Amino acid sequence: MADDGWRDATCSRCGVVSPHLRYALFYRVWSIVVYSQRTTVGGVLCPACRSRFAAMTALFTGCLGPWGIPFGILYSLHSLCTSIMGGEMKAAPNAALLKRVGATFALHGRWNESRTAFTDSLAFEPDVDVATIIAAPEFATARLLPPPPRWAPGQLVGVASLVLPFALFLSLGAILLVTDPSAR
Length: 184
Known about the structure:
Layout: E1 22-32, E2 35-45, H1 47-64, H2 71-84, H3 91-107, H4 111-124, H5 128-134, H6 153-179
């Protein structure tokens, strides 16, 4: 999309214009025995892209993360829990983002989207200026748009990925018990 005043209200991955944007961070973890690496990925994302990031980071971490001791396991748990929650969303950056998004929609006369973004901004951080803006006459008839689903498919992949490494560990332990008679 060309920059016709919508730059602050678009997803950094797919370019969709949305009042439901969030600044969300995810973590990818990979480990080999005593070495573990955790990298941060994310950005300003719409709900669909947050779901994709949750799925991608959960699958990557679930398969490659917990194989390092001790940090691989700890980093993987943190990464998978973050994916399950739909990303790490810090209050200050999200409040500022949604304030810009609300202003962008208001400049284009899209009052429902603007009110939604401003209201979501207040949920992250109280702001007298934003509360004053929402009280303006233009917002008197504006409706809040429905929120995106709480559990997106990517988050469900995160739950499944949380189970995967631990099921493998338990399976390996059971195999060792069965094949090694001295372990009984």
